[in-house]
Design goal:
The termini are far apart. This protein is 36% helix and 23% strand. It is built from 10 helices and 20 strands. The chain folds into 2 domains: 2-130, 3-Layer(aba) Sandwich (Creatine Amidinohydrolase, Chain A, domain 1), CATH 3.40.350; 132-359, Alpha-Beta Complex (Creatine Amidinohydrolase). The chain is an alpha+beta fold. The structure holds manganese (II) ion. Manganese (II) ion binds at residues 228, 320, 322, 336.
Length: 361
């Protein structure tokens, strides 16, 4: 953790700022190690050359005093943005590096009502540090991935006709917590039959039937780190040749894209490998999302694999590779693995087999 403080301090010096300031929950988790909800602004961090302050409200004070190292902990009352602005002011800071991208217009105004110095836009310091994972972070990501895969392995044999999508989704989330995760890293996607053509469909009361496609996209958050994987199965029997065709094409696209993940490639180049295979197979218009995204303390973070990404891959980045083909009214396929970019290619953290599998036989 102290390495991360040092890295922010050396960036501060180069940029000629007096301090770094953050109220971003994922950035603050990364910099302090304290796990809080990402749903609200619950802490503020001020890093100066020789001191660092961690501000939080009563709910987190006891935990912060025990767990947050390298910072002076202050308990604050009332509006965290106004109190933080007042603190920046009283510390006499003239130019503060700050990434405003997570703030609403109203939140920014509250901060500026109390701080009269300069907030210098700084979007990349912490997100840039987060892109390359340390060995310790890789172990946490691996553990989160293994935990989620264990749940998949145990739940898929229990699928039965009539099981509603939302009951299966709830079972995933129950098992994550039961096995030690803090919860799911995003709302579990469990879609049956034609609903599988909705890339981010919401599980409802739709009952499982023989001949259904079963699309499962899920992950857990464990010790602050996320996992993400997708498998697509069929239940009872294969719904038709159309499904075998799109499954085989998605499988091939994913396999070739995984081979293309290596240092020096851009996000756009890796995306193009999968996209060209799907397009040449005649389904280009049915693969409408990017190939993948970074995963870490957040489920979606830098870097991106898509048609616009100029990011050059480097060893230590963690990404998903998740092509899909979605036929409206019929069904869809997505196959997603979590991978680490290594010096010589990529290491696939997801171990669950990908051959087309018929469940419930
Ligand atoms: Mn994903």
């Amino acid at each position: 953790m102290n390495d991360r403080l040092d890295q922010v301090r050396s960036a501060l010096e180069k940029a000629g700022c007096d301090a770094f300031f953050s109220v971003s929950p994922p950035a603050n988790q990364y910099l302090s190690g304290l796990l809080t909800s990402f749903g609200e602004i619950s802490s503020a961090i001020i890093i100066m050359g020789d001191r660092a302050h961690f501000l939080c409200d009563f709910r987190y004070t006891e935990q912060a005093r025990k767990e947050v190292m390298g910072y002076e902990i202050s308990e604050i009352k009332g509006d965290i943005l106004v109190r933080s602005g007042e603190r920046l002011e009283s510390l006499g800071l003239k130019k503060v590096a700050f990434d405003p991208s997570g703030l609403t217009v109203d939140e920014k105004a509250r901060l500026e009502s109390a701080y009269t110095g300069e907030l210098a836009g700084e979007k990349t310091w912490v997100s840039g540090l987060r892109v390359i994972k340390s060995d310790e972070e890789l172990e946490l990501l691996r553990a989160a991935s293994n935990l989620a895969e264990g749940v998949l392995a145990d739940l898929t044999p229990t699928l039965r006709e009539g099981l509603p999508e939302r009951e299966l989704a709830a079972q995933f989330e129950f098992e994550f917590k039961k096995r030690g995760a803090t919860g799911s890293s995003f709302d579990t996607i469990a879609l049956f039959g034609p609903k599988s053509s909705l890339p981010h469909g919401i599980p409802d009361g739709t009952p499982l039937k023989r001949g259904d496609v079963v699309l499962l996209d899920f992950g857990c958050r464990s010790a602050g780190y996320c996992s993400d994987l997708t498998r697509t199965y069929v239940f009872g029997t294969i719904p038709g040749a159309w499904f075998e065709e799109i499954y085989a094409l998605t499988y091939e696209a994913q396999h070739r894209a995984l081979e293309a993940v290596q240092p020096g490639k851009t996000g756009r180049e890796v995306d193009a490998v999968a996209r060209n295979i799907i397009s040449e197979g005649g389904y280009g218009e049915y693969f409408g999302h990017g190939l993948g995204h970074g995963v870490g303390v957040e489920i979606h973070e830098a870097p991106r694999l898509n048609t616009e990404s100029d990011t050059v891959l480097e060893a230590g980045m963690v990404l998903t590779v998740e092509p899909g083909i979605y036929l409206p009214g019929k069904g869809g396929v997505r196959i997603e693995d979590l991978v680490v970019v290594r010096e010589d290619g990529c290491e696939i953290l997801t171990k669950t087999p990908k051959q087309l599998k018929v469940l419930g036989e």
